[in-house]
Design goal:
There is one protein chain. This protein is mostly helical. Among the domains are: 103 residues, DNA ligase i, domain 1; 40 residues, no CATH class. 52% of the residues lie in helices and 5% in strands. A two-stranded antiparallel sheet has the order 1-2. Helix 1 runs antiparallel to helix 2, helix 6 packs antiparallel against helix 9 and helix 10 runs parallel beside helix 12. The longest helix is centred in the middle third of the chain and has 15 residues. The termini are far apart.
Length: 280
Amino acid sequence: MSLEFDFFLYFVSICEKIQSSTSKNTKVNILSEYLTKLSSESLPIATRFFGGRIFPKGSALSLNLGFTTIMNTLCEIAEVTTPEIQQIYLKYGDLGKLAEYAITKKHTVPLFQQPEGQSLLPLPYIFSTLKKIADIEGAGSNKDKKKNFAGLLISCSPKEGKYLIKIINGEMRIGLVEGLVELAIAKAFNYQIKDVREAMLVSGDIGHVSLLAKNRMLNTAEVRPLQPLSFMLADVMFTVAEVISYYDKALICEYKYDGIRVQLHKLEMKSSCFQGSLMI
């Protein structure tokens, strides 16, 4: 049986608290306290959701639920017309708020409806349903995806529906970026932020890193074949003197051109040994 903290409704309440604060430190404190309460199954799901992802970076899974599908599904489950849905969307410009409104008008309810203020939707269930939608392929896949999506929305309270759509769109819009999630993981599990960021650099998956941190195994993070590494970011320096002072040694410089970044992962199949990564 899931704990209270593992339910989607509790996750939503944390999102609301984070959004209501303008202080980065307060956001990190709220999130770090929450992360310590999550089970090992829910923790990586929650941290990915907060970081704007459903699946790990590099995953081939994709929901393929477009704007039209979301709009049509909301019209189907709610006692609202398409023009009304469009008018509400134009008013708020946010699909999450539109979903919150539509679910207050829903005319279909699940067989087992949650009591007021309570939830029957654990985070692992939300994730497994989204993965099920992503796994649907072939003829009639759009219809089956929409059916599963509608079933999940019907089970949501208005607030849950709001954040479900935000998660699906990868736009939480609560003033939280992945860097703050990293800070929260460090604070929650008593690590230095540099340790979390080093683990992120080689792992690339904030869900995996959060679980390692919870289990006091952050130092075991390693490069894995076909798991994209995070790219190193440059530090900002404003003068040549500042650059020279920082490095305190002879430097060779080159122009920085715009382009794309590519990783090449080579795996030696005989020994299953990861040979290396190339960044261009």
